[in-house]
Write a structure and sequence with these properties.
The protein is an alpha+beta fold. The chain has seven helices and ten strands. The strands form three sheets. It has a four-stranded antiparallel beta sheet with strand order 1-10-3-4, with no helix packed on it. Helix 1 crosses helix 6, helix 2 packs across helix 6 and helix 6 packs antiparallel against helix 7.
Amino acid sequence: MALATYSDLQTSIAAWLKRGDLTSIIPDFITLAEARIARDLRLRKQVVNTTLSTVAGTQGVTLPSDFLEAENLTLSNTNPPGALSVVTPEILDRKFPEAYVTGQPRVYTVVGDQLLFGPTPDAVYSVSLAYYQRFAALSTASTNWLLTNHPNVYLFAALAEGAPYLMEDERAPLWESKYQADLLRLQQMDDAALRSGSAMRVRTL
């Protein structure tokens, strides 16, 4: 059975569960699976770049709606470009307790859907943000990179999420172990590819 689209995945889940009466609930299994995958997986393919603009006197900017985790932040319109270091919200508050004290940002933290800077920007800065992007939901995109290349992750995540609803206590460990094994294999493969090629060397100046 093909597993190329959202519809294919729903059909496959019903077939694996040997149930033809779950049409209305299987999309919930997939939604729960996508939420779990977003928490569990960090692949190079998910890293994208965008540019955000600060507002003078405003401490934060809103993150993209598909943001999962920051990879790198740089002020791209300063000379030289200003690398930003991540800190915890507690450290940001301790180092820059007065939000109205402004300057060129040096650090940032994530609070809710906001990037907060320290000190508060004193001008408009272009923030180059590299971040891990959540895969597009199948309910809106029909397919995405993960389903196309690793449908097994989607399938077993959805089956694992469906087991409690179906009260299949005896099947739940099977689906869970399959999901965990495939997820770990994919993450390890991606991590290894990042380090492939020539051996890393320390350059002597």
